Amino acid sequence: GRECLGFTRQDLKNYLRTKRQKELKFGEAGSLLASFADKSMKDSSFHFTVQLDVGEQITNIFWADPKMIIDYSVFGDFVSFDTTYRTHKDYRPLAVFLGFNNYRKSVIFGAALLYDETVASFEWSFRSFLDSMSGKKPKTFFTDQDPAMAKAISLVMPGTFHRICTWHMKQNAIKLLGSKYVGDHGGSGAELSKFIYNYEDEESFCIAWEEMLDRFDVHDNRWFPTIYGVREK
Prior knowledge:
Layout: H1 9-20, H2 28-42, E1 47-52, E2 58-64, H3 66-75, E3 78-86, E4 93-100, E5 106-113, H4 119-132, E6 140-143, H5 147-156, E7 161-164, H6 166-177, H7 187-197, H8 202-216, H9 223-229
Parallel strand pairs: 3-6, 6-7
Antiparallel strand pairs: 1-2, 2-5, 3-4, 4-5
Helix pairs in contact: 4-5, 6-7, 7-8
């Protein structure tokens, strides 16, 4: 059964990607690097870097243009890291470093095409991002609940506060709770929003949490202990 497996679905995806040794088509890598080189020649502030594997094949690619770098210097106190985009037919993750400007409009600080979603790839992308930003680390870094991301953040940015993106958390809750969630206007979804925004002291939070588990009869649900375990984030 599923409970007896020693690996997750993400582990399987990462293994298959490595096993198949996916490569960019002939000409794709050259075209991409030529485009980046051209941008770099026109503007020395354009930053890009690539990572090669033992077979001299491109694995991970990171880039940031001058506007991204300037925006980060002004608005880079917090960064949201998102890998939910899939634009390549082989489902290479497009990782985007995002933030808000003074008008609360989304701004992009950098982007990367990743080979897989392992600690090594995330660690490389985070180091590449910081290198492009003259080593300036964000105060707060938002991600989903991916443990590989959390590990990489602790290695590269140990002084940065790692927080869970509420949007991703709610999406996970919808998938795993189903009918018990019922959106933000009822059910456990409305209760979860209260835990994010309403409780300011730990004792009230913990008491309300136990009451919520009783009310919705979700003591046996696997997701609740997991999210409770990282409640400080």
